[in-house]
Each structure stands twice: as C-alpha cells, then as structure tokens.
Amino acid sequence: MHSVDSVPGQNLNEEAGSGKNLAELTAKDAISEAAVSAVKPSPEISVTQTETSGQVADAEKFSLRAKSLGLTIKVGTPADLPELLGLIKELATFELQPDAVTNTIEKMKADGFGPNPVFGFFMARLANGNAVGMAVWYIRYSTWKGRALYLEDIYIKPEHRALGIGHSLLETIREEALRQGCDRVCLQVLDWNKPAIDFYMRHGAVQDPEWINCVLPAKSQ
Predict the structure, then answer these.
(1) Which residues have CB under 8 Å from 36's CB, separation 6+?
(2) Element (H, E) at 141
(3) In the annotation, is 200 catalytic?
(4) For the chain, what is the radius of gyration of the CA atoms?
(5) Is the model more confident about 44 or about 73?
(6) Which residues pair with 141 in a beta bridge?
(7) How far is it, in rounded angstroms, from Cα 151 to Cα 121?
(8) pLDDT digit string (tens) for 109-165?
(9) How does pLDDT run across 43-58, given as a tens digit for each residue?
(10) For the chain, what is the largest distance between any 2 Cα atoms, rounded to a whole number of angstroms?
(11) Catalytic residue among 138, 141, 155, 200
(12) How far is CA 51 from each of CA 10, 28, 57, 97, 185, rounded to the nearest angstrom?
C-alpha cells in the first residue's frame, strides 16, 4: 500500500497480479499492537478484537502526536486534486514504477466529482496548510459479504512519518467505511513492503495468500 508513518510506501491496487497480498480490516476493529491470530483465508476475511487498555493508550498516543502537529484530515475537493496527483506519483516512484501513472487531473475530476463519483479521498494537512498525506477509497461489492470499502492508496510523505499521521488517516478510513454501511476495509500491499504489512497487521488486518490478482483488458485481444 502506501506509506503510513514508518511505512515507506504501498499501493493498494495498482497493477494487480504483481505478487501483492490481499488483506482486510474490519471497520470496528480496535487498534492493536498484538499479533493477529491466524485464521483460515477466504475471499472475505474480517477480524474482530477486544479493545484492551494498551490499545486505548496507543490510540491516545497517536492522537496526541497528531494534535501537536496541528494535523487536519478533511474530505478531498477538486482544488486538492493537483496535490493528490503529486502524492500518487511519489507513491508510484517508491514502488519502482515512476512512469506507471497515466491518470490526469481532468480524469480525476470527472471520476471523483462528476454525476456518478467512483472514488473519494482524504487529505492530511499540517497547521501551515502543507499536504503531507492522503488516502483514496471506493466501494466494492462481495457476493459473499456485501459492501466493503476498498482502500486504494494511503501515503505519507517520508519526512512526516512516525508521527501518527498514518494512524489518523487509517482511523478516518474506518469511520468512512461505517458511514458507507461497510463492516470491512479491503486493501493490497506489496509483498516486499514488510513495514507496511506490519503496520496493517498491528491494526487488525489478515492476509489472504490463496487468491491471485489478475488484470483483464477491457478490450479483447
């Protein structure tokens, strides 16, 4: 996926089929520093955990860090699209695919703010107004489990990691999932991005190693 706090980077769904693991979070999961218990993988996996005093303390710690920065996380607007696209390109560079981004501000404006929006996003900014992170999401549907929020991208600028910003963005995504009537947050993470994998596992994610990602061109060959 993308970079969160100490997590260098991670794209949740770019070029599916490149050896990424599928993970899912339940929107109601408590924040946990403990390892997630192993469960049998399935197309739709969710984890529920009992909140402990340690988890509450960790959440409060991250919140205090974010407040000390004057951090604000707001729903993205058309005016944010140039900065959002810049962060997306930074993420692609981290993932060793600097030329893979072909999207444009015009396309994103039409897709995110047209008559039938297909994605939403949040921007993380410091007190000085500088954009330091983002999270892009959309709704997906499982015939087994129903609606789920898919976290396409989450990224924090390298110089602003380990400050609780990733935690704040992820909690915002979980809250959005609940608002959208979803009980899960789905995502992908590059299999070599261990810091990102560890981050999601600490937040209750379960990896699914049984499913292979595929990309089928819309136009037949």
Answers:
(1) 47, 49, 201, 204, 205, 206
(2) strand 131-142
(3) yes
(4) 17
(5) 73
(6) 147
(7) 9
(8) 999 999 999 999 999 999 999 999 999 999 999 999 999 999 999 999 999 998 999
(9) 232 322 334 444 444 5
(10) 56
(11) 200
(12) 27, 10, 10, 39, 18
148 DSSP β-pair partners: 140
Average pLDDT of span 86-92: 97
Residue corresponding to tokens 């706090």: 5
Give me the sign of the Cα torsion angle 18, 102, 119, 132.
positive
Q: How far apart are CA 97 and CA 14, in angstroms?
A: 10
Distance of CA 126 to the CA centre of its chain: 19
The DSSP H or E segment spanning 60 is helix 53-68
Distance CA 51, CA 30 (A): 5
**62: which 2 tokens?**
């991250």
Residues 6+ positions from 86 with CB-CB distance below 8 Å: none
3-state secondary structure at position 149: strand
